[in-house]
Design brief:
Number of strands of chain B: 13
Strand content of chain B: 15-25%
Helix content of chain B: 25-40%
Shape of chain A: globular
Largest interface: A-B, 38 and 34 residues
Order of helices and strands of chain B: HEEEEHEHEHEEEEEHEHHE
Largest sheet of chain B: 7 strands, mixed
Number of helices of chain A: 6
Shape of chain B: globular
Radius of gyration of chain B: 22 Å
Number of strands of chain A: 16
Helix content of chain A: 10-25%
Distance between the termini of chain A: 54 Å
Oligomer: heterodimer
Chain lengths: ~325, ~325
């Protein structure tokens, strides 16, 4: 029994307020069913495996049912212990929105608050339109995906990273509207989210301002201009990329959403190294910093919500 | 008739009571202790902190010079209540009337007490006047947010512009005006020749980490070299204790030099802005100066973006035409 089946159990028993209770309810029903001698789910399964429900096989059935119940109980106990550790934690940032964040961005999968997911940001946002953040999840093995969000921002979701063949580390800047928890969650191989975060103080207002650059007459000529640079590191290279783009949130009066939505980094043969999804809060003219595991020329592709595509290749400085 | 005189009496009592309350309020809000740093020259020293409800915005040094027949005020503090308290302190120190107010620069802790001096000329450099016209309300709003109720009744009063003269005589006092710009884009330093006191404004911070929201650091370092040559005996920094030597100038210059050299080096080596928030050990000499970490991190926000843009732009990129 995996965590996801725990969740499916929970969904099948919506009245059970927690998964442990749900599991015991299942077990209890199973035991009761066995006592009655025939339970549809077991008979169905028995039919599939070719064991007939005959009088002379009743003993075998009872034995197998008993084994199943025992196994289920053992697994349920193990799972519920893990779940208790995972889900009964109090949000260290004590946010009223945590449950909603979990529902929206973590697919209601199990999670654990984990300091090893390091979120580095200033304690106070000096420039609400350009708050620097670094997420470092190198302490978590096999990170499948990273999502970054700020609970109390009008648009909470900031970015996602699939660190396909790069380290689970990213730096970027974002726009903040008010003081808020700022979190990163990384999904491990087992399907558990590890959630780190800090509280960011902010006078705010960053999300409802028009972009600065689009006030210039020639902004469109510069749209999508890429500057980028590579630096060798111990086990690969760091890439810093800047793309000129307004990244308008749609929350400033009469200025529609205009953002880069996807940024893909590949090697020279087109093999994906990292994939980023960017959302409205990402700062204007975004600068993204990634740590790649190879040390060769890279290519990048970006697409915005108006269908503009930008492509560039980046080589190491001699 | 009887009723009207009763109303009059009540009204006059009420007015007197309100006046007392108002004065008492300002007096209770700020405990300003004038420190005589030279003969007839006084400084009101603020806390070595950030704006907060607790410190009521009093984080700044203001001062006044008692001249032959009047008083010259240098900066009016962060709020109406501060300005009123300052005016009261001046009245308790001398019978001479306030002759002129000089505002060193546009930052809110230096001019938002202007309302208490609305009956006298308030003067500032033309760049400061323009800055207060454009940004004064924003600064005032930010102060209400940070300091809260102690800001009550504070409104922006824009100073009048000084001419291009480098010397003025006020209340029989010859003042040298240094027209500088490194800290805020328009910075006035005032040198009182008779007492040898230099009011450096925020071009000098001493034992309080400098702030850089509108700084041009290379220009600021040039300005500090100018101040270094002024033959002062006493230097009043914008923030931090008054000194009798060039320590304040030197500390400010050393910090700004470290700040920019260090940040530029980080940007050049590919460090991200968030990574730069952790101060490098090379700055250890400054770590114990009050509000170091806060101001350092604010300075990263002010100074690092231009440096990293510059660094990233030196990478080798071939961009394909739009598909």
């Amino acid at each position: 029994m995996t965590f996801s089946s725990v969740n499916s159990v929970k969904q099948a028993y919506p009245l059970c307020s927690n998964p442990i209770q749900a599991i015991f309810t299942v077990c209890l029903n199973t035991v009761r069913g066995t006592e009655r001698g025939a339970v549809s789910s077991f008979s169905g399964r028995a039919a599939c495996t070719g064991v007939g429900i005959e009088e002379r096989n009743a003993f075998v059935l009872k034995l197998s049912a008993a084994c199943t119940v025992l196994m289920a109980a053992v697994l349920a106990l193990a799972a519920s212990t893990a779940m208790a550790a995972v889900q009964d934690q109090k949000d260290p940032l004590d946010s009223p929105s945590w449950d909603r964040m979990h529902r929206y961005f973590l697919e209601q999968r199990p999670y654990v608050f984990d300091d090893r997911v390091r979120v580095i940001a200033p304690s106070n946002a000096e420039d609400a339109m350009n708050v620097p953040v670094k997420i470092d999840a190198t302490a978590i093995d096999d990170v499948q995906r990273m999502v970054v969000f700020a609970d109390l921002n009008p648009i909470s979701q900031i970015m996602e990273l699939e660190p396909v063949d790069s380290l689970p580390v990213v730096s970027f800047n974002f726009k903040v509207q008010q003081g808020t928890p700022l979190r990163a969650a990384v999904l491990d191989r087992e399907g558990v989210w590890h959630v780190g975060g800090v509280y960011l103080e902010a006078a705010g207002g960053g999300c409802t301002q028009p972009s600065v650059g689009s006030g210039n007459a020639d902004w469109a000529a510069q749209l999508g201009k890429v500057t980028a640079r590579l630096w060798p590191t111990d086990d690969g290279q760091r890439m810093r990329v800047r793309i000129l783009h307004p990244m308008d949130t749609g929350l400033a009066p009469r200025i529609p959403v205009f953002i880069i939505e996807k940024l893909e980094i590949t090697d020279r043969w087109g093999q994906r190294l990292a994939l980023l999804s960017l959302h409205e809060p990402i700062a204007e003219n975004p600068i993204l910093t990634l740590d790649l595991k190879q040390r060769d020329e890279v290519q990048l592709f970006a697409i915005d919500n108006n269908g503009n595509r930008f492509a560039a290749s980046v080589a190491s400085n001699p | 008739m009887h009723r009207i005189s009763w109303t009059d009496r009540t009204a006059s009592v009420l007015v007197a009571w309100l006046l007392i309350c108002r004065v008492a309020a300002a007096d209770q809000v700020f405990d300003l202790q004038p420190k005589e740093v030279a003969d007839g020259v006084f400084v009101l020293e603020g806390e070595l902190e950030h704006f907060s409800f607790r410190n009521r915005g009093n984080i700044v040094n203001t001062g006044f010079i008692v001249g032959d027949d009047g008083v010259i005020v240098i900066d009016t503090g962060p709020s109406r209540l501060y300005g009123e308290a300052m005016r009261q302190v001046i009245a308790e120190t001398t019978d001479k009337p306030v002759a002129t107010v000089l505002i060193t620069h546009l930052h809110p802790d230096h001019f938002l007490g202007n309302q208490a001096f609305s009956d006298v000329p308030i003067l500032a450099l033309p760049g400061t006047v323009k800055g207060i016209e454009e940004q004064g309300e924003l600064f005032n709003d930010a102060m209400y947010r940070m300091v809260g109720t102690w800001m009550k009744g504070t409104e922006v009063r824009v100073p009048a512009a000084l001419g291009s003269e480098s010397r003025i005589v006020v209340a029989g006092r010859e003042l040298e005006l240094l027209n500088l710009a490194g800290h805020s884009g328009s910075d006035l330093a005032v040198f009182d020749q008779k007492s040898g006191v230099l009011f450096a404004g925020d071009l000098v911070f001493y034992q309080r980490t400098p702030t850089t929201p509108q700084a041009n650091v290379s220009r600021w370092l040039d300005d500090l070299a100018v101040l270094h040559k002024v033959p002062f005996r006493v230097l009043v920094p914008g923030h931090g204790p008054t000194v009798n030597d060039r320590r304040g100038i030197e500390q400010t210059a050393l910090y700004l030099d470290w700040l920019t050299t260090n940040l530029r080096g980080l940007a050049e080596s590919g460090v991200s802005m968030a990574e730069a928030l952790e101060p490098a050990p090379s700055g250890a000499a400054f770590f114990s100066i009050p509000v170091f970490l806060e101001e350092y991190q604010r300075s990263v926000a002010h100074l690092f973006p231009a440096m990293e843009r510059e660094s990233i732009s030196r990478g080798l990129v071939v961009q394909q035409a739009d598909e």
